[in-house]
Amino acid sequence: MNEGHMSDDPRYPIGRFHSPDTITSQDRVDLISSIASAPALLCRAVADLTPEQLDTPYRDGGWTVRQVAHHVPDSHMNAYIRFKLALTEVDPVIKPYREGEWAQLPDTAGTPIETSLVLMEKLHERWVILLRAISEEGWNRQFVHPEMGAVPLERSTALYAWHGKHHIAHITELRKRRGW
Ligand code: NI
Fold first, then answer.
1. C-alpha 41 to ligand 1 mean position (Å)
2. Would you give the DSSP letter of residue 143?
3. Rounded to the nearest whole angstrom, what is the distance from the C-alpha of residue 175 to the centroid of ligand 1?
4. 25-178: what CATH class?
5. What is the 3-state composition of the chain as percent helix, strand, coil, each rounded to the nearest 5?
């Protein structure tokens, strides 16, 4: 119910993800547009931050801005693979990953965020080409998450449209609070 509204919980600045009951073909167009705009919005969110600001947690005990900026393409690379599996196999079982541990791997601290911004831009370029080409038949497809069960591609599209905004808002809300 609160999706799209600002929330007081710093973990969920745009609210938690709520799976829509129905997704129309126009909704799909809008969700894909959100995914298409995420790389530029992430880029803008981190623009002109100093190394110290990038190493600031977005909330007490939370990921740093740098970890958030690397996490989004990590997550969306997994998502892209899941879409491709679902479009080429029947109900493929996908591989979850430990995002908290991924955020601790040395490439997160060691890679300039500009690299992840370019990765994100190029990844979304391909992902959006794929999403815009999915047929009506294709939108009936799904993958199977070992813990969550069947995930229809429409629901996953809604989730990742939310996911990009969710993490970008972690950064933009931090900047607002700090006056950066
Ligand atoms: Ni995430």
1. 16
2. E
3. 19
4. mainly alpha
5. 60, 5, 35
Distance CA 28, CA 154 (A): 7
Sequence letter at residue 133: A
How far, in Å, CA of 42 to CA of 152, rounded? 26
Whether 163 and 75 have beta carbons less than 8 Å apart is answered as yes
Model pTM score: 0.94
User: Is residue 82 within 8 Å of 156, Cβ to Cβ?
Assistant: yes
Q: Ligand 1 centroid vs 59 CA: distance in angstroms? A: 14
How does pLDDT run across 12-46, given as a tens digit for each residue?
999 999 988 999 999 999 999 999 999 999 999 99
DSSP label at residue 154: H
134 token code pair? 């999915």
Mean pLDDT in residue range 55-64: 96
**Residue 1 scores a pLDDT above 60:** no
Distance 69 CA to ligand 1 centre (A): 10
What is the pLDDT at residue 8?
82
Torsion over CA: 162, 163, 168, 170 (sign): positive
For ligand 1, the distance from its centroid to the CA atom of residue 108, given in whole angstroms, is: 14
The whole-angstrom separation of Cα 60 and Cα 177 is: 13
